[in-house]
Design brief:
Blueprint: H1 3-38, H2 43-63, H3 75-92
Length: 106
Amino acid sequence: MADGETALKFQLIVEDEAALDRDRALVAFLKARIAERAKVAEEEEERLLAGVNRSLLEFEEKFEHPHRDDDRRSFFAGQIQALGWSLRCAAAAFSAHPDFREDFRP
C-alpha cells in the first residue's frame, strides 16, 4: 500500500471518529434541549419536539449501527447523513445556548 493511500485511509478514520463524537454530542445536546422545552411547551411545540425526538432516536440507532460504514454510498448511509443534517438544523434553533457547539451547524 502506498504511503498516500495509507495517509488517506488514516484521514478518513480520523474524520469518521470526529463526526461520531460530534453526533454523540449532538444527541446529548438535543435530548437536553427537548427535556427543557417539554416542561414549558404548548401543544404545537410539543408536537414539534416529539417529531424531533423520533428523528433523534432513529439517528442514534443508525449512527451506532456496526455496519454504518460498510458502504458510504448506500441508502443506509444516506439516511444517516440526512437525519444528521436535519437534526443539526433543529439544533441551530438553540445556537444561543451555552452548550451549543459550532460543529452542530448544518
